[in-house]
Design a protein that fits this description.
The complex is a heterodimer of chains A (about 375) and B (about 130). Chain A is of the alpha/beta class and about 375 residues long. Chain A has 14 helices and twelve strands. Chain A has two domains: about 140 residues, Thiolase/Chalcone synthase (Peroxisomal Thiolase, Chain A, domain 1); about 220 residues, 3-Layer(aba) Sandwich (Peroxisomal Thiolase, Chain A, domain 1), CATH 3.40.47. Chain B has one domain: OB fold (Dihydrolipoamide Acetyltransferase, E2P), CATH 2.40.50. The chains are: A alpha/beta (about 375), B mainly beta (about 130).
Chain lengths: ~375, ~130
Amino acid sequence: MRSVSVIGVGMTKFGEHWDSSFREMVGEAGAKAVKDAGIEGRELQAIYGGCMASGRFIGQEHIGALIADQMGLNPIPSTRCEAACASGGVAFRQGFLSVASGAYDVVAVGGVEKMTDISTEDAALALGGAGDQEWELFNGATFPAIYALMARRHMLDYGTTEEQMAACAVKNHANATHNPYAQYRRAVTIEDVMNSGYIAEPLKLLDCSPITDGAAVAILCATEKARQFSSKPVEILASSQASDSLALADRKSLTGLSATRIAAEQAFKQAKLSPADIQVAEVHDCFTIAEVMAIEDLGFFKKGTGGKASADGETALNARVSVNTSGGLKACGHPVGATGVKQVVEACWQLRGEAEGRQAANVEHALTHNVGGSGATAVVHIFKRGD
Amino acid sequence: MRDALPLIWRNSSERYQLKGTVCENCGTAYFPPRKICAKCRRKGRLVAKIMPHDGKIVSYSKIHAAPAGFEVEAPYFVAIIELSNGARFLTQIVDTPDEKVREGAAVRLVFRRICEDEKEGAIAYGYKFKVV
């Protein structure tokens, strides 16, 4: 397989966009990415679009065709990829594989979700589709409850506290204050999180990522041709994906995601790097406990110490590893199908030194980690700064 | 998908009787039932079997923000339990004071109403557990 680079990125602001539609968001992010890549639209040979549940959110399927149409890119092939909240990461990996294999030289990868056209209750039901509807959600479980079951077990096994989990939300909100694309650009305190009311114990409202509209796009190109278009290509050093049981109850361990561990091991092997070589990591913090588990499963911290590391500030900007400089899913927002691609956008901005007020120092390698459901899919990518 | 009537009746036998499957090759018990043993795959031989009615809590959460169809029950407990034969699944814990819902607590099967289909009004019954 040949090397692939990201030559352009773009995204909409994340938030509640009642005045813009699914297709308008796709158009905005796509146009920004194409412009950033310095290519003409006609140079794109294929599109991969990540989207989780547009049928439930806006009654629209056939998203692949919609994206190609709205971007004015007919008749190139355009394919939707779905893996719940990992749809964007999986779409990015499909784009990567299509270029790495030699099938195409230049492709676009998009992620998009329009979630606020329906009520929060209906959106929660749609998101429930990421888990085991027939046997877990059917019995009254909610998605926060699934992660709460993991959080409780993590607290029992490792002494992780609610305050330590809250520290992830506090840090991510602090990062988001410097991100003009973030949904919540306001700081919160540990006290705010602790007082925010239980959704599913021990998780409270401010432990949970929000419902968000947004789109993000990345343009991928064979590295050997990247310099024809871009003076700042970002090389993809590794792309890996793993699966696990759909139902949480079927997992051997509730205190980590096996799919993340396996995908991370494979990614570090591909990249010939170790966790210590990563300066910036965009990890999947759909709930604060998810960030605690992610930084352990990715190998940044020993299993069981993620809560303490977060509370000690080791994941803050320019600490041991800068985690979720964008604000993460928690504060940048979580338009489910777009998140995996947004993580790539942030990684590229960090590697290109364009992250402004939230720029980490001396970023040579960045990692993205996107999870579907409660860990039934995990996707990990590692990127290198172009020199 | 609580307005999908077939979802309620299709698995009624499994839900009413706590009927799962056991692999005759490796002995692994599955509830909910599976068609293919995840460990043995083609070498496995799954047969239907009624599960034991007792187990213990592995993890638990008290849900305050309930999904559609469960509002009247909130707050309520869900848990992952492990039966005495090793099968693990998610269920509600009912008829138990809050302080007794703990990791490792022994639980026993009870038959209860799960939820109501919104359109047709059909009621789904099935298993819940209580701490003993």
